[in-house]
Design a protein that fits this description.
By secondary structure, the chain is α+β, with helices and mostly antiparallel strands. It contains 4 helices and 12 strands; from the N terminus they run H-E-E-E-E-E-E-H-H-H-E-E-E-E-E-E. The chain has a 12-stranded mixed β-sheet.
């Protein structure tokens, strides 16, 4: 009888752990779906951000509309109109024009990795506080540039407050978002390279 009881206890424990795991995955996926929905339901979204790592810290602004985006930050500017990407850095002192891969885009704008989380990542609930959800996105494949992304998500708006990305080399980058603005009026050229945003005479190198 004791042996049967022990076996049943083990089975119940395994079943309980399985239910917890499944429910946790469902909750994480539900939250991530709401994050994606809050973004895709808007015509455009802009936010200020602070990006930091062990080697640098920069502040800037990002504007997104669907897959299009523009990032203006200290020493780095990037425009993507859905096909072509223009990237300027003070390190190269030039503008590179290219047709990026999806992984290239996700490194430039990790928000795009969030939009496709169910394709490349598995979402796992890490914590649930009074004001925030914390969800970890774990890469399904080893070849992606960001192996993990830990997201802190506002419970009221489902906007991302912070993203901690672990790169393939185990280095980390932290992005904090603030001052979200939804559906602001934008000009048609918002996501196309603006020569006025870089020093006069900056060479433009077409790498396509």
């Amino acid at each position: 009888i004791r042996l049967i009881f022990m076996k049943n206890k083990i089975i119940i424990s395994i079943a309980f752990m399985f239910v917890v795991f499944v429910c946790g995955a469902q909750n994480a996926n539900t939250i991530m779906n709401k994050v994606v929905s809050s973004y895709t339901s808007a015509k455009n979204v802009s936010a200020d951000f602070e990006l930091s790592s062990s080697q640098f810290k920069v502040k800037g602004n990002i504007v997104m509309s669907g897959m299009k985006f523009r990032i203006l930050a200290g020493g780095f500017s990037c425009w993507y109109d859905g096909t072509t990407q223009w990237v300027y850095t003070t390190a190269t002192k030039e503008v590179n024009v290219l047709e990026p891969t999806s992984e290239d885009l996700e490194v430039s704008n990790p928000y795009l990795a969030v939009m496709k989380y169910d394709t490349n990542y598995k979402a796992v609930m890490k914590s649930n506080t009074a004001k925030s959800y914390v969800v970890e996105m774990v890469a399904k494949n080893s070849y992606v540039d960001m192996s993990k992304i830990l997201l802190t998500i506002d419970k009221n708006t489902y906007q991302i407050k912070e993203a901690v990305a672990t790169m393939a080399d185990n280095s980390t980058q932290v992005i904090k978002f603030s001052k979200y603005v939804v559906n602001a009026k934008l000009s048609g050229s918002t996501f196309v390279f603006d020569s006025k945003a870089v020093p006069s005479g900056t060479p433009v190198i077409d790498l396509r």
